[in-house]
Amino acid sequence: MRLSILDQSPISSNQTAREALTNSMKLAQAGEALGYTRYWIAEHHDLPGLACPAPEVMLGYIGAHTNTIRIGSGATLLPHYKPYKVAETYNMLATLFPDRIDLGIGRAPGGSAEATNALNDNFLQKVYDMPNSVKELLHFIHNDLPSDHQHAKVTASPLPKKPPVLWLLGTSKKSAILAAENGLSYTFGKFMSDQDGIEIIKQYRDSFKLRKKDQKPDVILTVSAFCAETTEQAEEIATSALVWSLQLQKDEGHRGIPSIKEAMSYELDEKEKESIKQIKSKMIIGCPREVKQGLEHLQKTYQADEIMMITNTHRLEDKIRSYELIAQELEL
Predict the structure, then answer these.
(1) 2-227+285-329: what fold?
(2) Which of 24, 31, 250, 251 could cross-link with 9 by S-S, CB 3.0 to 4.6 Å?
(3) What residue ranges do the domains of the chain occupy?
(4) Could you give the 3-state DSSP secondary structure of residue 9?
(5) Consecutive sets of 10 residues in the chain, 332 residues long: mean pLDDT of each?
């Protein structure tokens, strides 16, 4: 089973945004040393506690501080941008870091309605046009625009020897079908929604259309996971993320991920306790053996080719240790 890392570049309650971004680079370095397949960083806009609105900037920084691990966006939010500009940017990254760049694309706004309006005058129309934008992006990436296309004379320079690998990210049948119709690899975000996930992935595989002879359907399942030496320690570490999720729902999470002590002392009413229970049910939390069992169960259930984990902790040391224990248990 391939294992990878998804990073939202979260800011902890005792950190600056710069420290959070530096920690993202250190996480990618750790992932490379531990044998993880890829490291992706997400795009968010004006969301409290998240430091990265521009994955393409961070990937230049991270690529310069790593050597072999695949790096990419998870995801670049395509409705905000022209496909040509996205192709130029990721072709440039693929030129700088050969055979290492993934271009994950999504259709979500990535922030509040106000932030979306500041970025985009016509977001909903761009979402509606997403199938056309994906096709145009593919043509720019592979430099094979039809001769009758309005931009046929335009090249998304520089053209790398190996183009970025495109992935479509989503949680719906619509996204799965769009990926399949274009012969793209697909990432299902289980950590955001597990509704109909098994059916959605099956539909992707059943509908997959080859773009090239050597292609085949490829599925990443993204989950939230926390691992420590003991189950009790893992539960403790995960408390920060659980309470932070609740705080964000209540518009209270502006200080970032709370420390374990802060999270433990946060007063919860019965409704909030039930909410945290629901959030926790979608996570994998435990000692190495338990996490391994959980990941293997998900891989088999969803027929995923790769598991990508997101681990939002207060301390970088706890996050890296979690990935380290999992890597050792699954013998990466």
Answers:
(1) TIM Barrel (3.20.20)
(2) 24
(3) 2-227+285-329
(4) coil
(5) 97 97 98 98 95 98 98 98 98 98 97 95 96 97 92 95 97 96 96 94 94 86 98 98 93 91 94 93 96 98 98 98 98 95
